[in-house]
Structure prediction request, 454 residues.
Amino acid sequence: MLRTLVRDELRQRAEEGCDVGGLISAFDEAANDPDRLCDIFDQLAGLQPRAGLPFDEPSDLAGIRAARPTIVTPTGPPPDIDEAVADRIRGGWYGRCAGLVLGKPLEAAPFVNERGAVRKYLEVAGAYPLNDYVPYDARACAAVGRTDLPWPDSHRGNVRFVESDDDIRYTIAGLEILEQKGAAFTTADVAHWWTHRLPVADCFTAEEAAYRNLILLGAHHDPHKLDPAGFEQVRMWMNPYREWIGAQIRADGWALACPGNPELAAEFAWRDASLSHVKNGIYGEMFCAAMIASAAVLDDPLQIVHAGLAQIPEQSRLSLAIHQTIDRCATAGFRADRFEEVLAWLAEAFADYHWVHTINNAAAVVAAFLLGAPDFGKVISIAVTCGWDTDCNGATAGCLCGTMLGAERLPGKWIHPLHDTLMSDIPGFHPIAISACARRHVAVARSVRNAYRS
Prediction:
């Protein structure tokens, strides 16, 4: 475990622009010696990015806001939460759930880390291009070197509810924290919810590291006692996953509470993400939150994506990747029937990133949205067919498109099999009706709107 953490920290520091070459041989020689590995980790922590890098990537909110684009597309004043906006919030919930279920059976090797594996499986199963939930097919499993397909309750024909998953538990977290603490919630409130409502066994990568650090600091009982230096330790110590996708999947709960207010959605996302992430890990959540909040009032996918870009540093690696993705989708005429060439480009352009990194997966979500919208099924199918973090991307793309369309316009073939039922492993939300969560989020959005009404 320790060796894996140090290996991943080597990769993380290299991605940040640090020269790690002098420590690679030391890592190889350290084997599993804990003292030597800890020393290497400490040396990595002391490195600084090379001078002259073209990126500006602060992690504090003031710094992020100062680094945003100076020219943005306005979304207009936040609307009253009337029935039309309420329907879009419901659409976000149902869209996220459907996209999650679609991607869940494919969140496993080789689908996540081998180019073309998703397509090969689906072709053998007679389900390519994907236009329904993923079927189980023994011949297709054998063709990609698997003996089974995980999560059978999410297979085509078996779907009766939304299986418990981290991609929905954090949406519940945003909902419940806002219900209990209101729009003035803090990062410490998020930490308190985690340590009192979220089993540590349900945390992964950056969230698992931050949770562990809260416990090691003795702050799991009351994180409000932590000072800024303590929170820095929570998100940084032995956490090489601080720019991975974990924060990005937590955007929806904050975004759906801020329809038409992408700046506030991004701020809420920052308060959440900064518990466990830095730099592009934070930007991923802010970007997705701002897009979803904008999708509650806008109908143009490209304008929605630009509304997300307006809330993150213009000279960040994430912003650059999204601009490149927009350009590539434009070259394909924003046409869903040309998704294969765009997915091939994504695989080449972002091949160096881990399959659960923020940047490549955010690019996949944007490509699926720009190519597939307003066809909900095409959006989530393209997002999942891309590979990488299939359930995360299906869920985020589903929420984004579902919010833009609203629940009334979502195709029944994707929504009816869910039977309005969600499992989460969170007490009080296991099981619970998806519609009940959406109603509560509408109420929260009205409360937030009143708190910020000018």
Remarks:
- Residues 2-45 form one domain.
- Residues 86 and 299 are 15 Å apart (CA to CA).
- The chain has two domains: 2-45, 61-106+162-451.
